[in-house]
Amino acid sequence: MSELINKYFPTASGAKTVNDHWEAFLNVGLPDRKSEEYKFTPITNVIEREMNFDSITSDSGSDPGVETLFSTPYHMVFLNGKLVKKFEGNDIISVAANSDIPASEKFIPNWKDEFHLMNKGLEADGVYLKIAKGNTLEQPVYIQYVVDSADSQSAAVTRNYFHAEENSEFQVVEEFIYLGENASFENTESHVVVGKAARVRSYKLQLQGKNQLQVGNTFVQQERDSYHKNITITMSGKMVRNNLQIFLNDEHCESHLHGLYMLNGKNHVDNHTTVDHRFPNSYSNEMYKGILTEYSTGVFNGKIYVRPDAQNTNAFQSNNNLLLSDTATLHTKPQLEIWADDVSCSHGCTSGQLDKEALFYLRSRGLGQDEAKALLLKAFVADVLNEIDIEPIKEKVESQVDSVLFTK
Amino acid sequence: MLKIKDLHASVEDKEILQGVNLEVKPGEVHAIMGPNGSGKSTLASVLAGREEYEVTKGSVEYRGVDLLELAPEERAREGIFLAFQYPVEIPGVSTTNFLRTALNQVREHRGQEPMDAVNFLSFMKEKMKLVDIDQALLSRSLNEGFSGGEKKRNEIFQMAVMEPKLAILDETDSGLDIDALKIVANGVNSLKSPDKATIVVTHYQRLLNYIVPDYVHVIYKGRIVKSGNKDLALELEEKGYDWIKSEVDPVIS
């Protein structure tokens, strides 16, 4: 596999050059069958089976002008890993290339994930955005990652950095869009620093696409008194792996992680999350929900670390799932490691079918079978949807509940 | 309105109903009584179309159509309403948010225009008065954290909104104190009309002081073994069910 990547991937992907970190990646390689972290998501096999990096044709192009969910002056578009549309900075938000990060920024953690190491070893397009101290960016930053695999397979590597300085606030929406039917592979990274008393809400939207393989790493570093909320919505994907790592690097941090996956066909989605409580008096709340039907597969792994110093931590986690067919598969694993003694932590995961008695109740009132199901499914996902603060996104996701689950 | 002939029904291969015969005409109130496990609630469930029950024999004709051929929602649209013995709790779904959809399905079936949100609200408020139910309760998750009385009042409220032709009350009195019982009974009585019928399934005579039946039937071992007027209910209250059992057991076993 390393050979394969070494041979084709750097030249074909648009990330044409490797850097000093590439050797470190090659020493590790991609996760193999024995990998604990990728046990239920055999992405390396699927990449080997589905991708022919040699076949990828030129990836140059201009802004494809795909539909947007809302308008904002802070709109950026990547096409096959190339930044093809960006915006000018102003007094509140500065825009620079990701290669211009000053050494003082401590974005990159020492993280073992193989795809993170791969990303680190490749030159990749991306930006470095900074929200100036004490300011609120009124409209969200909106990044669309478009992969066009209409004419050939496609591969993309991106790496973006967001820094909310002390007491600033902004929202960032990352939307992944697929044009064309050929297979594609993406390795994306987003690094977020939430400064002292800053507030950041981030959204990851994976609402369509059929043949994409994607591994994304999101790293969030929170400073004292900061607030972060992440919402990850995944409706589609041949194999999608979302790694979300939250580091609570000081006291009185508040962190929310919410996710929703609604899958049909043979879609496979894996959310691996880590919340690392390193200091006392912080709060984290995680709620992921899944609806699986047909032959789809859902994976959830939630790690919570409460380090010895992190007394008076409050950490909550839940993962609830509905399996609507006998052929859908779910793997869910909470993983709490607690070294501090004065903490309040809870976790719970469930999987089940729609409540038959509830269905009969609604039907006995005159609702058709599909309407009754849709109502129960919407009720099931409502507490995640209610966390979405950007109305057009919420409406879009709501409108997709029916279409994902009643395709036939 | 309703003609049940030799109805047999099983759940998990156990035959619960073993030949029920019953005819209900418009305007009538029928009480179905009987000891625990006799098949009262099964009869109510079979009429509403609960899928765990398999009808193995017999027929049910409702206003000229074969009721057993209809899905639960079709029965509801044709005017059958079941007030549940154990109303289901549904997190995230409020009474108001499903009831308008339900009502409009029924109205569409009847060839009526759908009711918009504004009209529905004033219609709903009128019906709320009947059972003295609070709007805040109806905006909460259905039955979640409701008291027993609130759940049953909510059932009768929904019945008032749906305006069924045939209402089936499945042990609506169970778990109610006397005040709640009166409220529920008043709600039911105010919906009575010459073209509507009611089947009241109950273990105790108590409710029948407030909802006065035209006929009382005793169901035992899956069939109706005795029928009479409201005096039969009083007799049962006084003497219990044992005398019926001793009368019937030698005959059917």
Question: Explain this structure to me?
Answer:
Chain A folds into two domains: 4-250, no CATH class; 356-408, no CATH class. Chain A is 18% helix and 41% strand. Chain A has eight helices and 19 strands. Chain A has helices at 2-7, 9-12, 22-28, 43-50, 114-121, 356-363, 369-385, 391-405, and strands spanning 75-79, 82-85, 93-97, 127-131, 141-148, 154-164, 169-179, 184-194, 199-206, 212-222, 227-234, 239-248, 254-263, 268-277, 283-292, 297-306, 314-323, 329-338, 344-352. Chain A has a ten-stranded mixed sheet, with helices on one face. In chain A, helix 6 (356-363) crosses helix 7 (369-385). The radius of gyration of chain A is 21 Å and the shape is globular. With 253 residues, chain B is of the alpha/beta class. Chain B is built from nine helices and twelve strands. The longest helix of chain B is centred in the middle third of the chain and has 15 residues, at 95-109. Classes of the chains: A alpha/beta (408), B alpha/beta (253). Chain A binds chain B through residues 355-358, 360-369, 371-372, 375-376, 378-380, 382-383, and chain B through 48-51, 71-73, 75-77, 81-82, 84, 87-88, 90-93, 97-99, 101-103, 105-106, 109, 158, 162.
Counted up, domains of chain A total 2
Low-pLDDT runs of 5+ residues of chain B are none
Strand-residue fraction of chain A?
Answer: 35-45%
Number of strands of chain A: 19
- Helix-and-strand structural type of chain A: alpha/beta
Radius of gyration of chain A: 21 Å
Q: Give me the side-by-side strand order of the main sheet of chain A.
A: 2-1-5-7-9-11-13-15-17-19
- How big a fraction of the residues of chain B is strand? 25-35%
Pair with the biggest interface: A-B, 23 and 30 residues
Q: What is the 3D shape of chain A?
A: globular
Biggest pleated-sheet summary of chain B: 6 strands, mixed
Write the layout of secondary structure elements.
The complex is a heterodimer of chains A (408) and B (253).
Chain A (H helix, E strand, L loop, with lengths): L1 H6 L1 H4 L9 H7 L14 H8 L24 E5 L2 E4 L7 E5 L16 H8 L5 E5 L9 E8 L5 E11 L4 E11 L4 E11 L4 E8 L5 E11 L4 E8 L4 E10 L5 E10 L4 E10 L5 E10 L4 E10 L7 E10 L5 E10 L5 E9 L3 H8 L5 H17 L5 H15 L3
Helix pairs in contact in A: 3-5, 6-7, 7-8
Chain B lengths: L1 E10 L2 E11 L4 E5 L6 H9 L4 E10 L2 E2 L5 H6 L2 E4 L6 E5 H15 L7 H15 L3 H5 L1 E2 L5 H15 L3 E5 L7 H13 L6 E5 L13 E6 L2 E6 L1 H10 L2 H11 L1
